[in-house]
Amino acid sequence: MPELAEVEYFRKQWSPGIGQKVTRVLTHPKARIFRDASAGEIERCLEGQSFLESFAHGKKMCFRFSSKVWLGLHLGMAGKLQTATPEIVPDRHDHLAILLPSVALVFSDYRMFGKVQIHQGNSAPFWWNNLPPQPQEAEFTRQRFREILKRRSRRPLKALLLEQADFPGIGNWMADEILWRARVHPTARPQDLSNHYRNRIFDSLKEVCDDAFRVIAPDWGDPPDSWLFNHRWKRSGQCPRSGKALDWITVGGRTTCYSPAIQKLP
DNA sequence: CCCCATGTTCGACA
DNA sequence: GTGTCGAACATGGG
Known about the structure:
By secondary structure, the protein is an alpha+beta fold.
């Protein structure tokens, strides 16, 4: 489920716990989300520590606790962060519950593609170090975008936009939305595009990030029908710009929705 | 029973 | 090295 702005939405869901001390940690020891850190280690590191602050980067999140404890979370395909009362009895999909005096911080993930990492130390762990600029930031410049396209000149644009090392946070619906707004065919390669279309993709990338943060991050608002988003899920969906039929193809192993009427191969 | 799903990773192969 | 492809992970919904 979660891409850039959804991840930011979920990160904030735990903020009511900031400043409180962990009284207890409930885990399901066999949950796949703990494959990089044992449930016991997570409990041992977190119990008794204060929740200080949190960050999101792309699809990853980092929650910092006292005594230099770093908790890394990735929501995978179906993960969610919620709060509950401290008396929570976790159901079968609540794999991690961090109990604080007035609130419980809960990570549920019925498909278990998510990931939990734990670290204790003065400096950031490897998984929260040397993070690349995010597309919504000013540091992600047109110059940087041009360099990525040059370096990955033969990669289909749809597959390239999904590369987390270059476009942290962009997922399937955002990549389709970006190319649809730029009127670029999802299988087009950077080397085939004119500078005009390369610039259009950069502008769309920034615009889709801004729109997603504005509409989704605050309270999970519904995107307007002027986006591709609301039409891409329906069979026989129609392109809101041309009124023509949408089509679905597989690019980079992912289902890709596009509008053949306005997204032509160069 | 079938197919699909807003994600990542790994191995095989051209 | 680059790029592609399929499978795997696990569960639920249509």
